[in-house]
Design goal:
Number of domains: 1
Mean pLDDT: 86
Largest sheet: none
CATH superfamily: MFS general substrate transporter like domains
CATH class: Mainly Alpha
Low-confidence stretches: none
CATH topology: Growth Hormone, Chain: A
Strand content: under 5%
Structural class: mainly alpha
Distance between the termini: 31 Å
Number of strands: 0
Helix content: over 70%
Radius of gyration: 21 Å
Shape: globular
Number of helices: 22
Amino acid sequence: MKPKLMAATLVAALGGFLFGFDTAVISGTTQWLKEVYSLSSFLLGFTVATALIGTMIGALAVGKPADKYGRRTLLLILAILYLVSALGSALAWNWTSLLFFRLIGGLGVGGASVVSPMYIAELSPARFRGRLVAVTQFNIVVGILAAYFSNFAIAGSELGQIEWRWMFGVEAFPAALFFGLLFMIPRSPRWLVAQGRLDDARVVLDNYGTDTGSLDEEIEAIKASLDIEHHSLQEPFFVKKYAKPIMLAVMIAIFNQLSGINALMYYAPHIFKMAGAAAESALLQTIAVGGTNLIFTMAALAIIDHFGRRKLMLVGSIGYIISLAATAWAFYTYGAEFNDTGSLVVLLGLLVFIASHAFGQGAVIWVFISEVFPNRIRARGQALGSFTHWIMAALISWTFPIIADISGGHIFAFYMLCMIGQLIWVLRIMPETKGTSLEDIQKEMGIE
């Protein structure tokens, strides 16, 4: 693997770091926001979901501009959105302004969930693509863990009512770094070919690697996949020939959130308090969740191109079912009267849950969605998959505090049943894409 390829991947994947940080940082602020703005469970859920509404808009809106202006240009715009959101949320003058700046951050997260993995997939040779696109997920996980550590450190500084402002504001530093580093990476070679800039594409492929070993063969394969003479980049998207990749992207995105992963990301301290943990202990347990996420993401990253996407999804699905069943049992058994045993079952159950997610869905989703669409509609396909993911995330995150107030057991039992559905889907429908060029995956989908 060429060092330049790894360097460009790490820079693009910083969009994932900010995605993870922005997603998780609000978990440390929910109690403060509830007190400062006198929020009910419904309004707290709405406050958390506001950023997710932004992610839906960002994911859906970014596809066509990414085709028109390029992947790198869009990443620069997203870096600015992250910076504005971090500073604006920290300086929010009322609840409405906080919602606005969280919405702006959501636009950045939604856009990055589309453009970062798509850019890396289009830059990477097939033999490295799985692990390189999965670097985005690795950075998401590092961002989540960094947010948990940041929240814990700030909470220990005894800053009082401005504590939550510092938690949001810290994100401005990595956002500014992301913006600066983006000027050092190339444009996507497949986007350059689509724009007719063949000489520029040839330079990028020469510097960053090819599937065929021949620059001319690679350019011709990409041109054949795009087939501009017969297929416009503006051709209809929701048509029969694209039904299979559309269905695959939508289903993996729906199942990703029906696991309850974003409920844990946004409400981890709240869940541990429900299970009897004190406030400081709840934040420490949240860091344990983030650390487990990181370790198992690294494990998946190391083997995704060897074992493939389906095997990781199978292992993750089984782990989901076991861990969610144990967590639901604990809440049904102990209710509001948790003892040390019940609290330990919840902690271990959720650690197994996050390990299962990191090793399965977490590592696979953005790789898989970036692979299954033809070059000419990849931006729109990635946008659809990401939009589906975020609309489900908003629904899960908004409803969690409301249903959890009724019964913690009900909510985790529901997620378990959904993961049984995912296991069946993986066994019966999900194809394997490891080690296959993007152009050959298109052929295997039966798309000319």
